[in-house]
TrEMBL record:
<protein>
    <recommendedName>
        <fullName>Glucosylglycerol-phosphate synthase</fullName>
        <ecNumber>2.4.1.213</ecNumber>
    </recommendedName>
</protein>
<comment type="pathway">
    <text>Glycan metabolism; glucosylglycerol biosynthesis.</text>
</comment>
<dbReference type="GO" id="GO:0005992">
    <property type="term" value="P:trehalose biosynthetic process"/>
</dbReference>
<comment type="similarity">
    <text>Belongs to the glycosyltransferase 20 family.</text>
</comment>
<dbReference type="GO" id="GO:0033828">
    <property type="term" value="F:glucosylglycerol-phosphate synthase activity"/>
</dbReference>
<comment type="function">
    <text>Involved in salt tolerance by producing GG-phosphate from ADP-glucose and glycerol-3-phosphate (G3P), an intermediate in the synthesis of the osmolyte glucosylglycerol (GG).</text>
</comment>
<keyword id="KW-0328">Glycosyltransferase</keyword>
<dbReference type="GO" id="GO:0005829">
    <property type="term" value="C:cytosol"/>
</dbReference>
<comment type="similarity">
    <text>In the C-terminal section; belongs to the trehalose phosphatase family.</text>
</comment>
<keyword id="KW-0808">Transferase</keyword>
<dbReference type="GO" id="GO:0003825">
    <property type="term" value="F:alpha,alpha-trehalose-phosphate synthase (UDP-forming) activity"/>
</dbReference>
<dbReference type="GO" id="GO:0004805">
    <property type="term" value="F:trehalose-phosphatase activity"/>
</dbReference>
């Protein structure tokens, strides 16, 4: 196996500072879990941002650096202005809404392209400085779309892969972007560009045609004398770990408490980052409509919505939070009693056990993003149900719906339709719940994160790079 150089905006670790103590903890996220095996085995490096360390003293910074080095993580520290312009500005105010079809949320005039380009240069420079001949470089996500092209200029012979973790939108959307050409050229610096679904591959192919006039074959395109492979690689989760956790006594005890507190009630659950792509307001409206339309369910339903704070410095996220707060208050005001409220809303992150208990205890899991590259929560829910029970309500606009066809698939823009689907889920016979969940679990377990990493890296490493010509500027 060749040495792996992983490049992602965030490192797979979190810097924790409590009083005088500072430590670096591995993140539990899908990317970190899936890539930790190949990262260890290949003896490679992971390059990325360790998060905001501006409040740490010099001594604490040195301690963080030493701990990162032990994990073979190479930090790229972002200045306050880079966080505000590269990360919040171009990545999350421009590319994020664009890729999620939300053009109205983009600023009329983007002023942060230069910061995006400069930080991409910094990432490419750092990765190139650690490169050794024979290494495989794997770059991740929309924050770093220019990096493959910048690396290709520095390292014409390198084997470079790129994975796009969010939707790649229709070319009609992507080509509205003033810097569309530079971004597409950036991706074409890779030998393999991967997406979650074949629709995203198709959208990218159309974009290349529209923006650069490039004709694509099914799985590759030739550009300036080089062949760039394209492919769909649906990302999975660490299904075995979720299954294990869902069976542990501690988790089952938590489930018991959860169910006892909701005696006589059915549990609907939503777990998301608080992001305007996740469809939380319409989901809440569907619950409100259900209570309005079906008085017999009043008092017999509890909807637990957990939202983890995210990108809080971006105005649209703050406004979205207010919208959600207001809706929760309205529904509880209308349908709560002095004994209970229909919506139990938490604005915080949960630990793994609490998450597993929620998944395991839910009657219906509501995963209704208005657009989502994949959505791992849907897969985590299935993996956490060794009891083969629980209904998954899944948006047709989540990449996961391509694979999880036994879910109850809904249009998240159709509030009335979602209300019907929730009712149907609540009334679904046990045998049908079991049949669906069994099929969902088989797929989630077979196509887990290790399968995803293996397929991407096998495809990338099978590409003969030695014969390639350097890209002309
Ligand atoms: P995204 O990458 O857009 O956040 P995904 O559904 O693909 O969406 O991944 C979200 C990840 O964050 C999942 O692994 C999920 O377990 C985790 N997560 C989401 N909400 C919470 C929460 N409230 N507490 C802890 N983890 C959460
Ligand atoms: O899904 C895209 C993604 O960038 C993930 O890689 C990441 O876990 C999530 O969004 C949260 O993003 P951020 O790094 O902005 O907190």
């Amino acid at each position: 196996m060749s040495r792996l150089l992983l490049v992602s905006n965030r490192l797979p670790v979190t810097v924790k500072a409590e009083k005088d103590q500072v430590s670096v903890v591995r993140s539990a996220g899908g990317l970190a879990t899936g890539l930790s095996g190949p990262h260890e085995r290949s003896g490679g490096l992971w390059i990325g941002w360790p998060g905001d360390v501006s409040r740490l003293s010099q001594a604490q910074r040195a301690k963080v650096d030493a701990q990162l080095a032990e994990l073979r993580c190479v930090p790229l520290y972002l200045s306050a202005s880079e966080v505000s312009r590269f990360y919040e500005g171009y990545s999350n105010r421009v590319l994020w809404p664009l890729c999620h079809y939300l053009l109205d949320r983009m600023p009329r005039q983007d002023r942060d392209w230069d910061a995006y380009s400069k930080v991409n240069e910094r990432f490419a420079e750092l990765a190139a400085s650690h490169y050794q001949p024979g290494d495989t470089i794997w770059v991740h996500d929309y924050q770093l779309m220019l990096v493959p092209g910048l690396l290709r200029k520095r390292l014409p012979e390198a084997r470079i892969g790129f994975f796009h973790h969010i939707p790649f939108p229709s070319s009609e959307i992507f080509r509205t972007l003033p810097h569309r050409e530079a971004l597409v050229r950036g991706l074409l610096g890779a030998d393999l560009v991967g997406f979650h679904t074949s629709s995203y591959v198709h959208h990218f192919s159309n974009t290349m045609l529209q923006v650069l006039g490039l004709e694509t074959e099914v799985d590759h395109v030739t550009h300036e004398g080089r062949t760039v492979r394209l492919g769909a690689f649906p990302m999975g989760i660490d299904a075995a770990a979720f299954e294990r956790l869902a069976q542990e006594q501690g988790t089952l005890d938590e489930v018991k408490v959860l169910r006892e507190r909701a005696t006589g009630q059915r549990l609907l659950v939503g777990v998301d980052r608080l992001d305007y792509t996740k469809g939380i307001p319409r989901r809440l409206l569907a619950v409100q409509r259900l209570l309005e339309r079906e008085p017999s369910w009043r008092g017999r339903l509890r909807f637990i919505q957990v939202a983890v704070p995210s990108r809080t410095q971006v105005e649209d996220y703050a406004a979205y939070r207010e919208e959600v707060d207001e809706l929760v208050g309205r529904i509880n005001g209308l349908y709560g009693t002095i004994h209970n409220v229909p919506v139990h809303y938490l604005y915080r992150s949960l630990n793994e056990r609490q998450l597993a208990a929620l998944y395991r205890g839910a009657d219906v899991m509501l995963v209704t993003p208005i657009r989502d590259g994949m959505n791992l929560v849907a897969k985590e829910f299935c993996a956490s149900r060794p009891d083969e029970d629980g209904v998954l309500l899944l948006s047709e606009f989540a990449g996961a719906s391509n694979e999880l066809c036994e879910a109850t698939v809904v249009n998240p823009y159709d509030v009335e339709g979602m209300t019907d689907a929730i009712l149907k889920a609540l009334e679904m016979p046990a045998a049908e719940r079991q049949r669906r969940m069994r099929a969902l679990r088989e797929r989630v377990k077979a196509h887990d994160v290790h399968w995803w990493v293996g397929r991407f890296l096998d495809t990338l490493q099978a590409i003969p790079v030695a014969t390639q010509q350097p890209e002309t500027a």
